[in-house]
Amino acid sequence: MDTFIQQVVSGLATGSIYAALALALVMIYEATEVVNFAQGEMAMFATYVCWALLSAGLPYWGAFGATLALALAGGLLIERVVIQPVENAPVLTIVIVTIGLLVIFNSLAGWIFSYVQKPFPSPFPKEPVRFGDIVIGAHDLGQIGVTLVVLACIFAFFRFTPLGLAMRAAAQNPVSSRLVGIRVGWMLALGWGLAAMFGAVAGMMIAPIVFLDPNMMGGILIYAFAAATLGGFRSPVGAVVGGLIVGVVENLVGTYVRFIGTELKLTVALALIIVVLLVKPSGLFGRAEVRRV
Amino acid sequence: MTTRPGARVLVIAAVAIACALPFLLSNFRLFQFTQVYIYAVALLGLNMLTGYNGQISLGHGAFYALGAYAAAIMMDQWHVPYGWTIPAAGGICLVAGFLFGLPALRLEGLYLALATFSLALATPQILKYFEHWTGGSQGIVLTKPAAPLGLPLNPDQWLYFLALAVLLAAFWLAANLLRGRVGRAIVALRDNHIAARAMGVNGALYKSLTFGVSAAYTGVAGALSAVAIAYVAPDSFNVFLSITLLIGIVVGGLGSISGALYGALFIQFVPNWAQDISKAAPWAIFGVFLILFMYFMPYGIAGAVRRVAARRARSQRAGEAGDAAASVRTTT
Amino acid sequence: MSALLEVTGLEAYYGRVKALDGVSFTLADRGITTILGANGAGKTTTLRAISRMVRTTGQIRLAGEPIDRCSTEDVVRRGVAHAPEGRGTFAHLTVEENLRLGAWGRRDRAGLERDRDRIYGYFPVLRARRKQPAGTLSGGEQQMLAVARALMLKPRLLLMDEPSLGLAPLIVQEIFRILREVNAETGVGILLVEQNAALALDLADHVFLLETGRVVMDGPSELLRRDDSIRRAYLGY
Fold first, then answer.
1. Interface ipTM
2. Which of A200, B93, C148, C217 is disulfide-compatible with A71, CB 3.0–4.6 A?
3. Residue A275 has what pLDDT?
4. Partner residues linked to C84 by β-bridges
């Protein structure tokens, strides 16, 4: 039983990473119907930026905060400079542009920071936390905590601030938004900025475990897709819940089902996607899209 | 469109040049063009599904792999002559694609893309899992075929002509399918599938069949590549292959037959150019190329060509109308 | 007294299709004007031209200042509120949030609370439903919400596109009564596009008639109300 709880908590910890990245994907998809294939690589690049700040001598939380700010600005800039010129093009065209960004970020990271794996510090203590017989890693708890704090801030932002309201409006109904004076283009840019921020959080939380490497976010992006699909690509709550479920299931399956090694763990995530899609195509929390014919 | 005499001359000229290339280029360059033709067949298949029928597939690498391995296993374990393996692979993929297309009917747009993406991701692992058939991570080594009937061609030249012949047959078949009733039906399903079905188009049948035919084309391409490269291994059929095929049809031009060739040229040669430009970060350069292409040709190369041709036709017609008006004026 | 809105030689295009072919008219300050015409005449296009939602050539002046080069957001910030065809409510947001959004483009933010209370005063049903998602409101209530949202901007000019569409006549009359009240109390100019000519003529001081992108009649609504022969000639009843 103790192992079970430990594995669940561990699963929630990795799940919170998937949730953060899935949330980023869903934010952009909800507003634009584009799946940003570059989300993982942008997160990886942000993590490298943090590493550079730490190497320059900044204390951890200072570098963390600065990276979030830089990610926000970076995401915003990318939307305005790279995406905006093609925003009226067919969806697949924009998807290819994001694939271009994926490849650029991956390549730049390898070139600037080299492909050699680097250790990345965790701000949480090394000693595990004990609850009776149950031992849980401090970093795992920390991961869950940080993700929860970021999510709480974001939900508060969207629910209670005027800017958050304007962003929600712009995503749901761009035409009416323009008619009340909202600059929809900048709301979109802000969405990309926030998404980049979530990605940066995910990257900085996972890097201590998998080590900093230009290819570290590839597998995580896939799990994030699985999470967003499970939750329903249009639902932020779904993305978070989906991420946690994927994390827990991945961990439990890996621990308790013998013949599934690390290779097939990915296939399990994918099988999960397909099963969900066949049973409930719009995901657990998704609204079935009602379209006028 | 190719019923215009001008276009037909262009096609004949292009084929003539293509036939001359084996005697002008090095074996390596020739091999690159062989690969271009193979990609073009695969892209034709994918375009049929995604461009014409609107079903987005990020998993066609799986059918390419299925075709390649089917051919390889037939050649390696049952000593089937390579010539038969190619249509056989096509047949196997036709069935597989049709079967995959049936549950896919439930999935729309993004979700179909994700399901097929999962298929692409799982492919290398599935291939490694069935070691007994596929040879596991080591793959299967084959022998390159020599030219038949004692023709004075080296293996690379022969393979080039084989690929070219398959490409021409594939283009011809696609043109006939897509420009007739069938083509109109599948495009109608893409643009407004409720209206199409209301007009009597059997949506489920056509969509699954399109999946099947599209998979068959890609499977044929995969089989050809197994013959041409004489080696198959699981890691060459990873998710990047599927992404590369998607890039190919978007850059080439969705919903166009000529787009398959433009796209194939792009995915074969542009990564090499990128590497020539920068040894340090070649993929970054490729990414920049990709983005620039999308800026200037959001409807692909074929789309840009069509727009230039349309503009030229319009100004020609305006000129003719002007002349006609002028002649009318002088007579009154 | 300068005119609230002056439109001169307005041409509008959807792609290469010309929808407005040299429309010219003037709106007096504080007046209620209605644009009538058959389907496809260009009524909605005229409103969209003023809101800069469609490509145009020609001049548009709002209180003397040219706005034909402005973006939609700028025109809104200058005090033009547009309640579009189909209401355009934010269906997944609450009534209250819809109203808050209405005030987004407002330059003068003083008295926002007071204005919102006044608007709830015009439409008490909205206050009762203020926490509900706007999509759950009935058609008439959503139209009221569209008007209320537009009024939250404290606009100089209110553009309304077919408010009567799909609504029972009693509800339309109620909404028009409120519009008359708002116009009397605040002096906001109203430009109303309508298919229901009788109700529109009742509300408006001034009318003009569009036919295939051109103004074919421009005069006080009194003229069409009283003179049967003119009304029959232009409106067929």
1. 0.91
2. A200
3. 81
4. none
